[in-house]
Structure formats: C-alpha cells, structure tokens
Amino acid sequence: MRIGAWSLDPPVFLAPMAGVSNRAFRVLARAEGARLCTTEMVSAKALVLGGARSFAIAELEPGEHPVAVQIAGSDPAVMAEAARLVERMGADIVDINMGCPVPKVVRNGDGSALLTDPAKAEAVARAVVEAVRIPVTVKMRAGWDGEHITAPEVAERLEAAGVQAVAVHARTREDRYAGPVNWEYIRRVKERVSIPVIGNGDVDSPAAALRVLEETGADGVMIGRAALGDPWIFRRLVHVWQHGMDPPPPDADERAAMARAHLDRLIALRGEGPAVREMRKHLAWYLRGVPGSSGLRARTATVSTRAEALELIEAWRERARDEAPVWN
Ligand SMILES: Cc1cc2nc3c(=O)[nH]c(=O)nc-3n(C[C@H](O)[C@H](O)[C@H](O)COP(=O)(O)O)c2cc1C
Questions:
Q1: Are 205 and 176 in contact (CB under 8 A)?
Q2: Pocket test for ligand 1, best of 169, 176, 222 (most atoms within 8 A of CB)
Q3: Nearest atom of ligand 1 to the alpha carbon of 222
Q4: Taking the CA of residue 132 as centre, how many other CA atoms within 13 Å lie in the half-sphere pointing to its CB?
Q5: Measured distance between the N- and C-terminal CA atoms of the chain, rounded to whole angstroms
Q6: What are the backbone dihedrals phi and psi of residue 96, each rounded to the nearest 5 degrees, phi first?
Q7: What is the signed CA dihedral for 195, 201, 206, 208, rounded to 10 degrees?
Q8: CATH for the stretch 2-243
Q9: Is CATH 1.10.1200 what the domain over 252-322 is classified as, yes or no?
Q10: Is NADP tagged as a keyword (predicted)?
Q11: What is the pLDDT confidence band of residue 327, given thresholds at 50, 70 and 90?
C-alpha cells in the first residue's frame, strides 16, 4: 500500500491514541514493525496559538519516519495553518481527526462532528491539502449514529478534495468505544473510493487482521488498544503477513526489557516524576495476563520513582520466568 511516496508494506499501523501514542511509544511500536505511526491528536487552534503542550505533542523523534501528525479542528483556515506548522516540524503526513467522540471536541464541531456535515468535512480537507506538500489523510468513524452512516459519502468527498488515504474506525460516534464493532462500515467506504482504506476497530490479533482485510477489502489495518502493553502485536502481524504463521509470544525477559525501555524513553521525554506516573498504566498493561501478577498489578498504581518501577518489573520478570508463558 502507498501513501504519497511512502511504500507501507506490510500495511500495519499504530493508531493515534491520546495519552499513549507519544514519541516513546511510537518508537517501540515502529521497532516491532508498525510501518506508520500517528501521533496523539493535537488541537489545530492550540498549535496555531503557540501552545507549548501542543507543540510537544507534534514533536517527532529523530529518525522516526514515516510518521503522521494528527490535527483536530474544523476551521479550514486554522487547520491549514496548523498543517503548515506540522509540515515544517517534519511530519511526513498530516492526518485530520474526524473521529473523536469526546463532548468537549464535538461541541466545537471538531472530530466526529465533522461527519454530520460532509460539505464542511470536505472544505476542511481541501484547505489542508492546499496548504501543504505532504500527503493528507483522514481518520474517521462510520458516522454520528447508526441512522447516519455518512463515512462513505464523506470519504468520497475527501478523495475529491485530494486526501490520499482514510482510516475507518468501524463504530459510530454514539458507540464511543463500547459495543460490537461493525467492519461492514469499512467495506462500505472501500466500495466508494479508490484511495487506500485502512480498517480499524477491535483488530486484536493477526487472525482478526486477516479477517478484517478479507471481509472489507481494506488495504491495511490500524491497531490501537491491542498494542497497549503489547507492542509485539506488530511483530506478530508482520510475521503472519510474511510467513503465514504466528510467532511465539515474547518471553519474560523480552517483556521486562520492553517495559524498561518504555520507562526510560518516557523519563527522557518528561522527567522522572511525570514519566513514572504516566508509566503506571503501561506497567499494568504489560502485566496483563502474566501468571500470578495480581498482587503486582496493584503495585503499579503506587510506583513513583524509576527505582521502584524497575524493582516491580524485576519482580514480575522473576515470577513470570517461573511460570508457563500464557500471554496473549
Ligand atoms: C486511549 C485512547 C486514545 C485515543 N485517542 C485518539 C486520538 O487522539 N485520535 C484518534 O483519531 N483516535 C483516537 N483513539 C481511537 C483509536 O485510534 C482507535 O480508533 C480506536 O481505539 C479503535 O481501535 P482499537 O479497537 O484497535 O483500539 C483513541 C483511543 C484510545 C483507546
């Protein structure tokens, strides 16, 4: 699959996740095989106003290419300006958020609210496409609710505006993150456009990835929550893609090394205190499914220094090594 000059094979991508898909996590996902990673969403307005936190979100790791920076907003001029900024900061692709369901976002007409106004979605995309030389992509949901599945129409308009790929999270805004995903929505978008369509939503294993591709005709898959505490999912996907079989899961030593690397990258980014607090949720995710981890999982909520986090990682590495690896 291609986006602009980028050849993205195997087409296995890390989803944008606020609070997760920062530089530290993207580097780990990429090393495991994610061919394209997208940043956390950044408010176009905040970027244009020069907000330091927004700039930090859009900052890239040296050598981290290709990478997409996701901007959110619905004012075409502001979105165009934000797109120019992220292009200057080194983004390879600008991704527009048309999926965020959060009330604070949709109240402004941003995120998934754009799906209720296909003409406006098109105008935003056109303004961004005209503002930059790099490719523009869009991540969207299926529509606002089950009665309004606008993604196929919106996608058609986006293609006409010059958007080079769309990722479809196969849920509506009303579904939020719960309820069954309906991959049929992805197929309906795929039927309407000739640009690449990336399938997203509950793809949690290589088998699920192959199923979504087969059922929808999608050109690639995007993984979000299944990568939490499990960046190896990309390696498994690549392996299945290339060799047709699922490799063995990571052993205790690999899991511990990954958690340590994640911790240290976050510390380099934020400083020890904030990084360790942010790392608590990741430690709990890394421990998911590890035999005998329940006592240790409770401890993840209280670590506050690098030394405590390392001690915890070492404790579960030793326990896990003594038990059969039943992860995944
Ligand atoms: C914690 C979290 C943060 C997210 N943040 C974003 C975001 O910033 N931009 C976006 O387009 N989608 C965001 N999403 C949605 C995901 O990209 C993805 O579409 C969704 O989780 C479904 O895919 P999955 O089942 O593989 O997780 C977020 C999801 C989660 C769980």
A1: no
A2: 169
A3: 26
A4: 32
A5: 28
A6: -100, 130
A7: -100
A8: 3.20.20.70
A9: yes
A10: yes
A11: very low
